[in-house]
Design goal:
Length: about 80
């Protein structure tokens, strides 16, 4: 099912395809790749489902917006370069 996730800490909307709509109170882990001064690393952030909005239409498939409350960043610091 096509779902739009709204990340609470950035306000960013992300379209994803999930097998089911998350329920209020459930935890979602979001992994993405970021690049900063230390290089590229995988970031892992934890969210909690705060709100689920459905928009139903007779002609189109339902639109589902899931608002996520930011909990914490579980990534840890990027690995130090072994050559230094």
């Amino acid at each position: 099912m096509q779902i739009t996730l709204q990340l609470g800490n950035t306000g960013e909307d992300i379209d994803v395809d999930l097998p089911a709509v998350p329920r209020i109170g459930e935890q979602i882990l979001w992994a993405d790749e970021v690049t900063d001064d230390h290089g590229t690393y995988e970031r892992l952030r934890e969210y909690r489902v705060e709100m689920v909005d459905w928009t139903l239409s007779r002609t189109n498939s339902p639109f589902v917006m899931v608002r996520l409350a930011y909990m914490r960043d579980n990534s840890g610091p990027p690995a130090a370069d072994a050559s230094s």
